[in-house]
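Example record

Each entry pairs one chain with its bound ligand, zinc ion.
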Amino acid sequence: MRLVVLGCSGSVSGPESASSAYLVEADDGERTWRLVLDLGSGAFGQLLRHTDPASVDAILLSHLHADHMVDMAAMHVYLRYGPQGPYPAVPVHGPPETAERISQVCGNGETIDEQFEIHRWTPEHVLTVGPLRVTVFEVLHPVTAYAIRVEGPSDRGGGTRVLTYSGDTDSCDGLVRAAAGADLFLCEAAFTEEREVVRGIHLTGRRAGEAATQAAVKRVVLTHVQPWVCGETARAEALTEFAGPVDLAEPGATWIL
Ligand SMILES: [Zn+2]
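Structure tokens for the complex follow.
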């Protein structure tokens, strides 16, 4: 299983990165399976760097804030009018309002039924895509939001590996359960301890580290750092609470699990 960062800029796209989007790939001996976790602004172009977007087996939306899904409009255009299009509908899994929200961003009365086969998450929903097993856990954000746990085959000598993506959340039980024992915990750190005191929206680097320790994960990759925050500040905060390795997500960065 491999994780590729398509976009990791927090809340808005940044000068160096698209907004939230991640490609997860896994091989089952016959072919490569591909999941896209979120598809924020500018991320569709980054997806083109790594694969044919029509080869994506499923798109999983953690929640429906624009910075996590607005490039579904670009995906819609590609699937409808792309070079070999129209392509078959791509399964999309997301919160209850996913169909309406995608219709809004596509706009102009565009229909989306032929491009997207939309499914609603339910709490602790389990989904199988090729060799990948996905479970979602409701987390704490101003809108319905989920952390996404992906279990898949190791690329490093057999066995199963676990990748957990926090989506957007503040500290909560759902996050810790989603990340329990994860080999890689891709965790947001949008806020910093010094700047933001508001609760119930995002993690700080320190709170991401705290969740990582509670969940006993093996490695943290911090993401969703806002463009006006220094990533090293988030990393330093996380390291005050978590004793394992803490990396910073960067566009194009890949982790092999
Ligand atoms: Zn959000």
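The radius of gyration is 17 Å.
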